[in-house]
Amino acid sequence: MPQQLHDHIKLHHVHFNEVNELYISLSLRAFAIGLVGIFVPIYLLVLGLPMVAIAGFFMVMFGTKVLLHPLTARMSARFGPKHIIVLSYIVSFVYIMMLYALPQYMWLLYPAAVIGGIADGWFWLSRHIDWAAVAGRKKASSEYSWLLIFSNIAMTMAPLIGGVVASAFGIEYALLGAGAGLLLAIYPLLKTLEPVVPRRANLRLLKAAPWQHLAANFAMNFQSVVSVLFWPIFIYLIVLSYDAIGVIVSASLLLVLLTAWFLGRLGDRGKNTQILKSGSRLRALVHIARVPVQSFPGAMAVNIAGDVTDMLASTPYAIRFYEGARRHGVTSYLVDMEIAGDAAKVASWALLLVLYIFLGLGAALIVTFVLAAVLMPLLRWIEIPAQSPEPLQGQAV
């Protein structure tokens, strides 16, 4: 294990203050984004935009992220990941306000996609770099499960609140709430200083992460788009209201929290491999179970099962993800993995668009559910080979 995983953060100083500020800030951001995140495709549909324009919006957004990651890595190396996270919150606020203005200025659609891609790209890569540095390796599972607990409280309650607000007063008020939440999320990150030691980020694009890990992250992100964006569209075709979608998405809060806590305890005891194996199989079954859903109770039951199985798959997956970063060079590995993940997001929307043209929206969504199930076994490819060496002291990260 090298002394420095990242020049900006000393591991032995951060376990209390910096981890806690990450918990709080990331939870506030999760709440703010959760107020409107799952509703954005539906919002665009309600505005009367054709499916071609909506798919194009998301393809531009995620395509922007793919192109941006090398620059984000260099910015993080130069200014520190926490500074870039703060900047991402500010740009996310601009993105939300552009969505707010869309009904009056429809020409903002694709500029908003680019701004949203920049904000999301800056946030996720910097967040991964920061977390890879500050999380303790011996308690990595429990620390990440606590992060998931805090984030899931926010992410699970937010759609309910956002859906009720959108139905009662209009989606524009949920967007204003999201914007305010993003600005509020900046404050915890200002509580501790981030020493900046400028250095060059010597990237090895698509050479640091093993191809099996790239395939695993492609599959993980494809199924994430299916779960977080395609599934709410499918539910909307059934229930036709924001608040009903919010109720369905938020119904699993208690089970998700208990699952996250339990998985953290098991992961610290070395059970991540078994959990990931079971979680990926159960997750595949849930994707298949989405296909016949035709009612509110059915959607709620499948969504509860989906949230629990998502925890079973994503928690051990994330631990392997950060282990891979430590073994293969933090920044280069994370850039590779983010490129693969966002390529999957572009591909998922491109596929949905093609299927929509030939099959219609409902049938196209069903095909993506089945494909997500087929890809689930690839998640296990994130497992770190036992012979994989630790990065040497001074190796480029």
Predict the CATH topology.
Growth Hormone, Chain: A
Q: Give the ordered list of helices and strands.
A: HHHHHHHHHHHHHHH
Fraction of residues in helix: over 70%
Number of separate structural domains? 1
Tell me what portion of residues adopts beta-strand conformation.
under 5%
How many DSSP H or I helices? 15
Radius of gyration: 20 Å
Q: Whole-Å distance between the termini?
A: 13 Å
Count all strands and give the number: 0
Q: Which overall shape is indicated by the principal axes computed on the Cα atoms?
A: globular
- What's the CATH architecture? Up-down Bundle
* CATH domain class: Mainly Alpha
CATH homologous superfamily (4th level) name: MFS general substrate transporter like domains
Poorly predicted spans? 1-16, 386-397
Summarize model confidence as the mean pLDDT: 85
The biggest beta sheet reads: none
The class by helix and strand makeup works out as mainly alpha
Characterize the structure shown.
The protein is mainly alpha-helical and 397 residues long. It has one domain: Growth Hormone, Chain: A (Up-down Bundle). 76% of the residues lie in helices and 0% in strands. The longest helix is centred in the last third of the chain and has 33 residues, at 296-328. Residues 1-16 and 386-397 have low confidence and may be disordered.
